[in-house]
Design a protein that fits this description.
The chain is an alpha/beta fold. The protein is 23% helix and 23% strand. A hairpin with a 4-residue loop joins strand 16 and strand 17 (445-452). The termini are far apart. The structure holds beta-L-fucopyranose and calcium ion.
């Protein structure tokens, strides 16, 4: 009896104390403004991927085929999908986008809807399928696979008429049904003009705001591919950054309202690129920028470009100005006439990746003590430790009423750095509007950088290295911040990053 009483008392104590020490529930902040959907979270997570411009142009030396090229011209001598995909991967990319069809209309897969394809090429006796081989190689090598299907088709006899739009949709259906998971569909804005058009050899103009019936065409695509994010001048997944030179605006908001360049509605091929470049602080939709640029002067391989491949340091500069401004980075690496990546491009990519590793492998902030001016509900769930755990899904946040907050990073002994890396927890929207960084000079804080917007990622980088024991990062915005990752890095000594050329 006595034993039973003691036992009961112990149980009551245990229950009482476990109730006492139970952590209080602290809710996450409410999302603010537009937020990414699942499709966008998927493409955002890739961050860096690459175009493969490869087609009949590779064999004619043209950049925009007229549409009258014979399929017999397509004949890679030593096509090797693994070499291509592995090279892109070795360069740090997480996906590739293949030009399944460029403006000349030649199809890299044996489409049932046209004769203008690989099935009439000598390559593999007409039994080849580049889309199949590249998509398989992607899946084998853990790379995402995407498709460029040019809306403009200079070969098709019906281009400009309603029948062609049906043809385009049929081809989308083929590509999105038969080649596994597709992460992005790339819809280019260049459309209408002169072409072969089945022998008509004329100029055909279309109204790019209505002709392709994009809402319906994209619905077909979405229905076939649950993770598909669509790229065009207006999104809806990612938007064109407004140039093809590898730089995004500063700031470059993921928030965006497409703006037309005339009195018609905005559409692929009908936007004012200056808004694409920066987005808008009050943009209505979540449509982050994607920056597409070629590693060579041209999109398709020509031997004259062999000596003009961008250097690893230049690619790094573009990385800072695209990914580092919150955009995704789509770097074109065109296979040559063999059907492989030329050694000059592959050397540049591998060296570039080595630079990335040298810079980003050692996060100085991991060894520092980080103290926030406020932690949401004083809860572990939202504490500073989330900033350096390498997990994009955990974040530091503050109480709702704290819209100005800071992080002090105390290194204990002086460190030297020239790169700061920040990511917002984007499922809650873009919440930081302004940021500023200070260094401790021994007696006071001195501001060394400031700017607007973080979003997917913000990389601040300087030619001048800073040595200090403490830095302070200040943030402000219309609501409390939610920052998922923070890094402080030093580039290798002696590295020179040339400025990205913005106006050629
Ligand atoms: C442009 C095209 O006209 C170029 O040839 C290239 O494919 C580039 C990526 O998109 O709009
Ligand atoms: Ca984290």
């Amino acid at each position: 009896m006595k034993a039973k009483l003691i036992f009961q008392t112990i149980i009551i104590f245990i229950i009482f104390y476990s109730c006492q020490s139970k952590p209080k529930v602290v809710l996450p902040p409410d999302p603010y403004g537009p937020v990414p959907d699942e499709r966008q979270l998927n493409i955002q997570s890739l961050e860096f991927y690459g175009f493969l411009h490869f087609s009949i142009n590779t064999f004619t030396g043209r950049q925009w085929g007229f549409g009258n090229e014979s399929p017999e011209l397509f004949n890679p001598t030593d096509f090797n999908a693994d070499q291509i995909v592995k090279t892109m991967k070795a360069g740090g990319m997480r996906g590739v986008i293949l030009t399944a069809k460029h403006h000349d209309g030649f199809c890299l897969w044996p489409s049932a809807f046209t004769e203008h394809s690989v099935k009439n090429s000598p390559w593999k006796n007409g039994k080849g399928d580049v889309v199949r081989e590249i998509s398989d190689a992607c899946h084998r090598n853990g790379m995402a696979f995407g498709i460029y299907l040019s809306p403009w088709d200079r070969n098709h006899p019906d281009y400009g008429r309603p029948q062609y739009v049906k043809y385009y949709q049929n081809q989308l259906d083929e590509l999105l049904s038969n080649y596994g998971e597709i992460f992005t569909l790339w819809c280019d804005g260049a459309n209408g003009g002169s072409g072969y058009y089945g022998g008509a050899n004329e100029v055909r103009k279309i109204d790019n705001t209505t002709y392709y019936d994009w809402d319906y065409t994209w619905k077909i695509a979405y229905d076939l591919q649950p993770k598909l994010s669509i790229f065009s001048d207006v999104g809806p997944g990612t938007r064109w950054v407004g140039n093809e030179r590898g730089h995004a605006g500063d700031p470059c908001w993921a928030r965006f309202t497409p703006v037309s360049k005339n009195d018609k509605m905005p559409a692929p091929g009908n936007v004012d690129p200056k808004y694409n470049y920066t987005g808008q602080i009050d943009g209505k939709y979540w449509i982050p920028a994607e920056a597409d640029v070629s590693i060579r002067p041209n999109w398709f391989y020509i031997p004259q470009d062999d000596s003009l491949v961008k250097s690893p340091e230049y690619i790094l500069g573009m990385y800072y100005e695209t990914i580092g401004h919150g955009a995704t980075f789509n770097l074109n690496v065109p296979p040559d006439k063999r059907g492989q990546i030329h050694k000059n491009d592959s050397i540049a990519l591998i060296r570039f990746k080595k630079l990335l590793d040298e810079i980003f492998d050692d996060n100085l902030a991991k060894k520092a003590k980080i103290k926030a001016s406020n932690v949401r509900g004083n809860s572990e769930m939202f504490s500073e430790k989330n900033l350096t755990d390498g997990n994009k899904n955990t974040y530091w946040s503050t109480d709702n009423e704290i819209k100005e907050a800071s992080l002090t990073i105390n290194f204990n002994k002086p460190v030297t750095f020239n790169v700061i890396d920040l990511r917002e927890y984007t499922p809650l929207g873009q919440r930081v509007w302004d940021w500023a960084f200070d260094k401790w000079d021994g007696s006071k804080w001195i501001e060394f950088a400031k700017g607007r917007a973080i979003g997917l990622r913000r990389l601040w980088r300087s030619n001048n290295r800073i040595s200090t024991k403490k830095i302070r990062l200040r943030f402000s915005g219309p609501v409390c911040p939610a920052i998922s990752e923070l890094g402080v890095y030093a580039e290798p000594v002696g590295l020179t990053v040339p400025p990205v050329i913005k106006n050629n």
